[in-house]
Write a structure and sequence with these properties.
By secondary structure, the protein is an alpha+beta fold. Helix content is 37%, strand content 29%. Bound molecules: fe (ii) ion.
């Protein structure tokens, strides 16, 4: 689940009807390790908004889009989406008064080695009183989650019944950093527990 939440590229293949655009396939990722976790992010400049966002942004024409995928130890994620009219985005962009921002907060609570409960909610910066918009966004995000679920359940089966070696690609850099640091924290905690018991 945390791998998925550190992978902005999966939307190009898993969420074609909602969050995907051509730019989500091939724009390079930037990876940042922080004290609390890992951030994988990228700005995609001057492209048509993906279908879901086209319905909600309050401007016409192309956009600059930020995907900010951040997971904090052990399993909390902040996914931030920024859509601003083309020419106003980028790391130093001035943004625009009609910039659309959606933050989603995701909380995983593992129940067994192969299962987790997954809680989430999302916030937006436009029309907070618009119930129809809230409803539409909730339904679309739920629909997108079902697309993730189908893929992630298959991934879990593959990981639990490994029949070939694991192949890590450069695109997996964020997830690998997160996994390694988390494992190091688990090892340290075990060591401390052991020493306390002695
Ligand atoms: Fe997804």
């Amino acid at each position: 689940m945390c791998d998925n939440l550190l992978d902005p590229t999966h939307v190009a293949w898993v969420h074609q009807s909602s969050f995907a655009a051509d730019a989500t396939k091939d724009t390079p990722l930037r990876i940042k390790k922080t004290d609390e976790g890992v951030i994988v992010h990228r700005w995609m400049m001057d492209h048509e908004p993906a279908p879901f966002y086209k319905k909600v942004v309050e401007f016409d024409g192309n956009c600059d889009r930020l995907q900010h995928y951040e997971v904090r130890y052990p399993s909390h994620a902040l996914v931030k989406a920024v859509f601003t009219p083309a020419g106003t985005g980028g790391p130093d962009g001035p943004l625009h008064e009609n910039t659309f921002i959606m933050d989603s907060y995701n909380f995983m609570t593992p129940t067994t080695e192969g299962q987790t409960r997954y809680y989430w909610f999302q916030l937006r910066n436009i029309r907070p009183e618009d119930e129809a918009l809230s409803q539409m966004m909730s339904e679309d995000v739920q629909h997108a989650f079902e697309e993730d679920r189908a893929v992630l359940n298959a991934v879990q089966v593959g990981m639990s019944n490994k029949s070939s070696p694991h192949i890590d690609l450069p695109i997996d850099g964020g997830q690998l950093r997160f996994r390694r640091q988390l494992q190091a924290m688990i090892n340290e905690e075990r060591e401390v527990d052991k020493q306390m018991a002695e």
